């Protein structure tokens, strides 16, 4: 009886081990399953004229595609635009490559993306910073950056020693002016709360007029615009001009070497991480988490869950955020930090209405 019992026990153990092995074979980890599916999927991206090393929104969006390649095992293709004339041929190149989903980066690609989507109705597209296209196969990725820029304006006003802060844009388009609107309103809110009169140079929200370089390509124009703002007394400057922020960084570094005390508010990405050359002068950054959004849209498409419903980044869903102060952390008072947290909460709760003509509409 004892021998029979032992053999029965051994048999049961063998069967149990076999069952576990079959279970393991039948249910591979979720990430393994995703990567298996990803082998037959091609994700693509087309930059605007700033290129994928612009240390701004092109670079951040491209980073999202690279994350998708790593995490989901997809194949990737890219096309870098050097000029507006490259948009259409680059999108045609992606269509020829049979991309499952093509991400186009920037408002300026709207017309070319719309045409490509119409010509390739079975392919999916996602466009960053544009909500003009109404098509079943195009998903807008947009951001209410006025919210985070409001916080940046408040912080800039609190840090200013001259009582003047400045901003300028690349081109007068909604995805640029939305930052400038939020920034100006943040300064205004600071003045109202503190009884101050910090001025905003470079942008008049009421008139929707201000300083623009009329280019996103010529970095030296960013240097010129920044030097003009510094000469006018601004000691915190927010460039909203893609790669031209590098020109701002260079101008501020040079000014500080001559005894000035000027800082920068970066936009789109955390400038300390994407443009470390300027980390000593970057107060904070108004971020759009484009890398996460791009990867999420690709993942949803891979899983058969694509929709043309816009992704809207806000403070609430952390699609737009104010970056840490990094090297300026010890220079920003505890009082200002507490006030910024309170303002952020009030924006999320709807107690403070951040309004811009360029904000995404419900």
Strand content: 15-25%
Structural shape: globular
Rg is 25 Å
Q: Determine the N-to-C terminus distance.
A: 76 Å
Q: What topology, given as strand order, has the largest sheet?
A: 2-1-3-4-5-13
Number of DSSP strands?
14
**Spans of 5+ residues with little confidence (pLDDT < 50)?**
1-28
Structural class based on helices, strands and sheet pairing: alpha/beta
Q: Sheet with the most strands?
A: 6 strands, parallel
Helix % is 40-55%
Mean pLDDT: 90
Number of helical segments with 4 or more residues: 12
User: Order of SSEs, N→C?
Assistant: HHEHEHEHEEHEHEEEHEHEHEHEEH
Question: Could you give the topology of this structure?
Answer:
Layout (H helix, E strand, L loop, with lengths): L1 H25 L3 H9 L3 E5 L10 H16 L2 E5 L7 H10 L4 E5 L4 H10 L4 E5 L9 E6 L2 H14 L4 E6 L4 H21 L4 E3 L1 E2 L4 E2 L8 H13 L4 E5 L4 H13 L5 E6 L2 H4 L7 E7 L1 H13 L8 E3 L6 E3 L11 H16 L13
Parallel strand pairs: 1-2, 1-3, 3-4, 4-5, 5-13, 6-7, 6-10, 10-11, 11-12
Antiparallel strand pairs: 8-9, 12-14
């Amino acid at each position: 009886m004892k021998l029979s019992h032992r053999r029965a026990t051994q048999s049961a153990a063998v069967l149990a081990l076999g069952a576990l092995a079959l279970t393991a074979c039948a249910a591979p980890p979720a990430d393994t399953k995703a990567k298996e599916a990803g082998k037959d999927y091609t994700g693509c991206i087309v930059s605007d004229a700033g290129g994928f090393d612009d240390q701004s929104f092109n670079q951040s969006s491209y980073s999202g595609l690279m994350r998708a390649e790593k995490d989901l095992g997809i194949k990737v293709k890219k096309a870098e635009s050097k000029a507006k004339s490259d948009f259409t041929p680059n999108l045609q190149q992606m269509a020829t490559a049979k991309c499952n989903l093509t991400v186009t980066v920037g408002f300026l690609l709207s017309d070319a993306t719309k045409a490509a989507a119409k010509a390739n109705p079975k392919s999916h597209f996602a466009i960053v910073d544009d909500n003009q296209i109404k098509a079943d196969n195009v998903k807008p990725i947009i951001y209410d950056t006025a919210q985070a820029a409001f916080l940046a304006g408040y912080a800039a006003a609190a840090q200013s020693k001259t009582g003047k802060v400045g901003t300028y844009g690349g081109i007068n388009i909604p995805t640029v002016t939305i930052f400038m609107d939020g920034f100006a309103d943040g300064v205004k809110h600071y003045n109202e709360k503190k009884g101050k009169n910090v001025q905003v140079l470079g942008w008049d929200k009421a008139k929707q007029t201000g300083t623009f370089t009329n280019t996103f390509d010529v970095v030296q124009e960013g240097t010129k615009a920044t030097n003009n703002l510094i000469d006018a007394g601004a000691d915190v400057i927010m460039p909203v001009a893609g790669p031209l922020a590098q020109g701002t960084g260079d101008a501020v570094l040079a000014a500080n070497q001559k005894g000035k005390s000027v800082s920068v508010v970066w936009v789109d990405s955390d400038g300390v991480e994407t443009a470390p050359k300027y980390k000593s002068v970057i107060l904070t950054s108004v971020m759009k988490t484009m890398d996460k959004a791009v990867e999420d849209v690709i993942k949803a498409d891979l899983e058969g869950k694509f929709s043309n419903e816009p992704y809207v980044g806000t403070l609430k869903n952390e699609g737009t955020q104010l970056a840490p102060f990094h090297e300026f952390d010890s220079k920003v008072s505890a009082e200002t930090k507490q006030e910024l947290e309170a303002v952020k909460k009030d924006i999320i709760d709807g107690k403070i209405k951040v309004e811009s003509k360029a904000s995404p509409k419900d």
